[in-house]
Amino acid sequence: MQNRRKKVRRIKMIRRILIVGLPVILIGGMGYFSLKDLASTNESAASGHFYNNSSYKDGDSEYDKDDDGKTKGDSSVAAQEEEITNNDDVVLDTTPDSLTVLVNKELRLPSDYIPADLVIPDVNFSISYYDEKKLMRKSAAQALKELFDAAADNGLDLCGVSAYRSYERQYEIFTNNVKTQGMGHTVKYSAIPGYSEHQTGLAIDISTKSANYRIDDSFADTDEYKWLKDNAHLYGFVIRYPEDKTSITGYSFEPWHIRYVGKALAKFLYENDMCLEEYYKFEPTEDYSQCINYDNLEDYGINPDDVKVPTKAPTKVPTPTPTETPTPSEEPSVTPTPSVTPTKKPGKDKPTVTVTPTPTEEVTQTPEVTPTEEITPTPDVTDGASDSGDGTSGANAQTP
Ligand SMILES: [Zn+2]
Q: Where do Low complexity bias regions lie (predicted)?
């Protein structure tokens, strides 16, 4: 009898365990896998969600495509460590994934080229939110951190403004500019998609607080630039468009645009006062800006429909100018705003008492937000509206 009871009890126990335990295991398991999914989507979000640009394939790119693209960049990092003593037998490097690739007004990247190892460098940026333009290839991102840290050790403040730019983004910028500004203006100030070095993920436009985070000539006058000019190569970067090389690079002086090429090559270029074109003995055959026109858009991978001006009256966007004005985020200008709020409320009564405490609160609040967010529009505007091959501000982008 007793044995039987025990047996029954045991069966009941097992049943209870199954009833309670199974759902726990199932729910737990589901939770685990959904967390795993979440983690992997987060991982790919940084490099994945912008780049779906197979629709702009040009098919006749000059580049040999790389099937195992991911590892190629890394392997050339090791090769970079060997000192470069001359460029006698150098072969023009047009492999998109190579850290020493040459991209210029005559050498374009495939429209579907997206670096496989894009990450956000651990440095200060002029914007606080996530944006594609914060991305750089891994080795360039690490070197950038070293560069910025070294600058900081010297009491200097460098700040990232615009790094990676996808083909799609450049396509948007270019076609929008053609629509709103016309072809002549656009080819002067805006790179044709595929020809921007920013698509390599190895270039970045940088600035500093004293230049108001702008990417224009004023950066050349800062202490930061003076230091950068003679130290960037120690970290693998070069000033890509120097003042005295404009006829070879095809770009006007861009003190803010630096390009990662690895330490060995950067050192060689610096010590021999060469730009990348000279190193590869690349001779420009034509003034690229004169080549593209409304009749040959398709040769450059541009769909003519995308630059068709709508029949409506031209809607010139006056936004840039108003946006710039708020940038000097001065506290005094803020004060009027709070005084409005109290006036509204007490309308009938005496407003005097309420006014005093409110402003203090409101004022403290605003500046906190201002520095990061107010700055943003400025580079954004420069970047999008008038971007030469690289990230130029319209004012000085006059190419030779
Ligand atoms: Zn640039």
A: 326-344, 352-400
Q: Could you tell me which residues come within 8 angstroms of residue 108 by beta carbon, excluding any fewer than 6 positions away?
A: 61, 62, 192, 194, 195
DSSP E strand boundaries for the chain? 118-119, 136-137, 159-162, 203-207, 237-241, 254-260
Between the CA of 257 and the centroid of ligand 1 the distance, in Å, is 4
Distance CA 275, CA 260 (A): 13
Q: Which of 107-121, 171-185, 241-255, 326-340 holds the top average pLDDT?
A: 107-121
* Domains of the chain and CATH, by start: 69-315+376-396 (3.30.1380.10)
Ligand 1 mean position, distance from CA 178 (Å): 20
Catalytic residue among 132, 168, 224, 254: 254
SS3 313: coil
Condensed to tens digits (0 to 9), the pLDDT of residues 368-379 reads: 333 333 333 333
254 is known as an active-site residue: yes
Higher pLDDT, 334 or 320: 320
CA of 357 to the centre of ligand 1 (A): 47
Partnered with residue 204 across adjacent β-strands are: 258
pTM, 2 dp = 0.62
Q: What is the pLDDT of residue 388?
A: 47
Beta carbons of 342 and 284 less than 8 angstroms apart: no
Mean pLDDT of 339-349: 36
DSSP state of 62: S
Q: What is the mean pLDDT of the chain?
A: 72
Question: 88 in the Ramachandran plot: left (φ > 0), alpha (ψ -120 to 50) or beta?
Answer: alpha
Kindly give the residue spans of alpha helices, DSSP state H, lying in 276-319: 276-279
Q: Residue 204 C-alpha to ligand 1 middle, in angstroms? A: 6
CA–centroid distance, 392 to ligand 1, in Å, is 6
Beta strands 159-162 and 203-207, pairing class: antiparallel
Kindly write down the DSSP assignment for every residue of 72-126, as one continuous string: HHHHHHHHHTSPP---TTPPP---TT-TT---BTTB---TT---TTEE--SS-BS
